[in-house]
Amino acid sequence: MMGLNDLQEERLMNRLGPEDYQSNRHIRKILNLAQAFKGDVFYDLGCGRGQLCVVAVAEFGVKRAVGIELHRGRAAKAAERIQEMGLTSRIEIRNEDFMESDLHDATIVYCGLGEVDEDVALFGRKLKTGCRIVSLFLPFVGILPAAADYPFYLMKVPFRKTKDVSLWTSKVLFTDASVEDLYQELDTDREYRYDKRTFKRMMKKRFPSL
After folding, report:
1. How does pLDDT run across 88-119, given as a tens digit for each residue?
2. Residue 199 lies in a domain
């Protein structure tokens, strides 16, 4: 582990349990895809219990991590865990709506929540050039990913936008495919968390040819 003293590491392992900590393959996928390193400031939007922030600091050695959680109870539990681990100097938990958060110093942002219409404009305005954004299941509609390790997609600011729906769909499904193929894939994927009506509305808005 990087960046922790022996006492902090012991607290971390006691709190998470070795099996839980070592089995977080999806968390490591996110951070590996973003190429997280010690100079990064990492933000988790909708951080839940703060696990991703902990691994970002403890294993990947990021300079600082910020977890933003709207649910008061989850935010309180996450903050309690961070305090018990002795990581409050490296990890901050904020109980707030990320749509209103200050993200100016972020170099990596994880957004595992379903995209809403405002996201592209919001992140394009709030995030600095070079910031990496990792999303779950889909890149933002109309934004070309820089890399992917399914179910995660990496985008960078400034966004690479496209009006070519076929190009975007091919980047999502990793093969030449139609919009109908994409809709069918999402309809049959039980893990897909986005509201499908909202997604189809955004598709029509971002791709005028539909």
Report:
1. 999 999 999 988 899 999 999 999 877 766 77
2. no
Q: pLDDT tens, 125-146?
A: 899 999 999 998 899 999 999 9
Structural domain span for residue 42 = 6-161
Instruction: Decide: 54 and 78 in contact? Cβ < 8 Å.
Output: no
Burial class of residue 62 in the structure, from the number of CB atoms within 10 Å of its CB (0-12 exposed, 13-18 middle, 19+ buried): buried
Count of all residues that appear for the chain in the document: 210
- pTM of this structure: 0.86
Residue 66 falls inside a structural domain: yes
Closest to 81 measured CA to CA, from 54, 113, 116? 54
CATH code for the domain in which residue 131 is found: 3.40.50.150
Q: How far apart are CA 35 and CA 33, in angstroms?
A: 5
Query: Is the distance from CB of 155 to CB of 135 less than 8 angstroms?
Result: yes
- Residue 172: inside a domain, yes or no? no
